[in-house]
Amino acid sequence: MANVKNLKKDINYVLGDIIEAVYLFEISTSGVPTPETNALIDEAIAAFDLLITKVNAKNVENKKSHFKQINVELEQTANQLIAKINEL
Known about the structure:
It contains 3 helices and no strands. By secondary structure, the chain is mostly helical.
């Protein structure tokens, strides 16, 4: 597993790309935000905040498994958000 700095970058890039995809969807369809797209953006921001909080947790017994679990959560969250974007 890469270091904490790279994990934080991964979280930022992945969720940032998802938010960008929502904006591109808005531009390519109606040109204005909809309640559904706003909800997706809010969900991505909430996931970002949650994952960064978990990364910054200091009272972790096994750091290696903790960070692997965060990486798995990032992948699951990203897949769920992408599926929701595809449903729009």
